[in-house]
Design brief:
Elements (H helix, E strand, L loop, with lengths): L2 E8 L3 H17 L3 E3 L7 E10 L3 H12 L5 E13 L2 E11 L1 H14 L14 E7 L5 H10 L3 E7 L1 E10 L2 E11 L2
Antiparallel strand pairs: 1-3, 1-8, 2-6, 4-5, 4-7, 5-6, 8-9
Helix pairs in contact: 2-3
């Protein structure tokens, strides 16, 4: 029985991905040493499942359909830049997200609903963000903080319409995501 690396994500609209690509280019022109996420791969992770047996794919898909069935579409705003674990010690560059309680309920319901299938609940508090880059050179730290202050980061908003269950293959050029299931909201 094969295993896949999988996760569940909220889809981001293409126009927002294009705006984030512009932010990546702007920061990249000032700060080196960052490996940027390909815009087509930018998403909001709702639940990272990790190694997933092939025989669980259908059950996971059914849980996702049942969990999201009653939820309506909702608005998400993209605003602010930052870094994890902190701007003083950046490892991951992110764009912030703001949404109403529906997003938090969606993430929590997915987390709880997948537990009976063997996926432990997340230990960290859900912090909605879009990973846009990973810092590879520690010399970027100071320049990155300055770039965060100088770049306009009110990138607009979009209506969340679907979540996607993905298989993720890690290759030297970066991850390759394959859709296992799309589930529409509303």
């Amino acid at each position: 029985m094969g295993q896949f690396r999988t996760f569940v994500a909220l889809e981001i609209k293409e126009n927002i991905k294009e705006l984030l690509a512009g932010v990546q280019q702007k920061i990249g022109s000032e700060v080196g040493g960052i490996k940027w996420v390909k815009p087509k791969n930018i998403h909001l992770t709702l639940k990272f499942l990790g190694p997933t047996r092939e025989d669980k794919i259908e059950a996971i898909s059914e849980v996702l359909e049942n969990t999201t069935g009653g939820l309506t579409r909702f608005n998400v705003s993209v605003s602010g830049l930052g870094a994890f674990p902190s701007s003083n010690n950046p490892k991951v560059v992110w764009a912030g997200l703001k949404a109403d309680e529906v997003l938090y309920k969606l993430q929590k319901d997915i987390d709880i609903s997948l537990e009976p299938l063997g996926f432990a609940r997340g230990k960290r508090l859900f912090s909605p963000h879009l990973t846009i880059g990973r810092v590879r050179d520690s010399r970027a730290k100071k320049k990155l903080r300055v770039a965060f202050e100088q770049i306009r980061t009110e990138l607009g908003s979009f209506e969340a319409e679907k979540i996607t269950f993905y298989k993720s293959d890690l290759v030297p050029e970066g991850p390759v995501y394959t859709v296992l299931k799309n589930v529409s909201l509303g």
